[in-house]
């Protein structure tokens, strides 16, 4: 029987198989790459990261895989375009886990990746469209996949989602901090902040109002610092109280001197937060102008450290909040 009467395997199917095999070899063998074989709606694999000690850590990413046998990405100025259906991209943006578009150059045995979270925020008006059927992602040599880099991109993609949700509340945190600073900073250090008696957060009858507020602000500044990758080197409120007990009679109660120390620490940390905020806005300005224009205006404003201002200068700043 002639070969012409036998079925052919399409070259695209061969490239797909090669792409899957190359991807599996490229990723650390301890990672779990689960293929979704039924009804592919734009996600080919679920990737579960495993720690260096082979611990299952519950960190999962989604992958859409594209293979090519004719890429020139191995050249210095190489580029390769991958078209994606707009409907699939819209699904990725609402997916429960971060999505990566991965391109495998089967001929050069090279793997490239793009974080959908990063790319769509970097150029939102290019990708978040409903008037076209497809959008194009352009891969270059700088997109070459490294396992450590993929882990970093995954964690960053998760953080971008959190920042979208929580960062617009930063101006509110700024106002709350300034109001408390205006009311309490620099008062008579030998006075108890809220009268006699150690702070007890389980009490609900209104005592220790200002200590509750400083502890709440501390936690809020800590959280936004973590989201913006600002190093947290601020002592806890309890450490500030303990280390600032100049007199034995103070015990575990917070005095105005310790309250002002806590405010000074938070003031310095907020300055680092503002720097990171401006860097983030600069990276994704179009995205933030569309989703949180007030946040962009806030980031563009002068946000001085209160502890570095004179009393008169601080009053001018506080006046804008009244």
Number of helices: 12
Strands of the widest sheet, in order across it, are 1-2-3-5-6
How many β-strands, per DSSP?
A: 7
How many domains, in number, for the residues? 2
Give the overall shape, derived from the CA principal axes.
elongated
Rounded mean pLDDT score = 87
Helix content: 40-55%
Secondary-structure-derived class: alpha+beta
| Residue fraction in strands | 15-25%
Sheet with the most strands?
5 strands, mixed
Structural overview:
By secondary structure, the protein is α+β, with helices and mostly antiparallel strands. It folds into two domains: 3-145, Trna Endonuclease, Chain: A, domain 1 (3-Layer(aba) Sandwich); 165-319, no CATH class. 46% of the residues lie in helices and 16% in strands. The protein has twelve helices and seven strands. The protein has helices spanning 11-26, 86-93, 116-122, 124-127, 147-166, 170-184, 209-227, 237-243, 256-283, 285-291, 293-300, 311-319; strands spanning 32-35, 45-50, 56-68, 79-85, 99-105, 110-115, 134-140. The strands form two sheets. The protein has a five-stranded mixed beta sheet with strand order 1-2-3-5-6. A two-stranded antiparallel sheet has the order 4-7. α6 runs antiparallel to α7 and α7 (209-227) packs parallel to α9 (256-283).
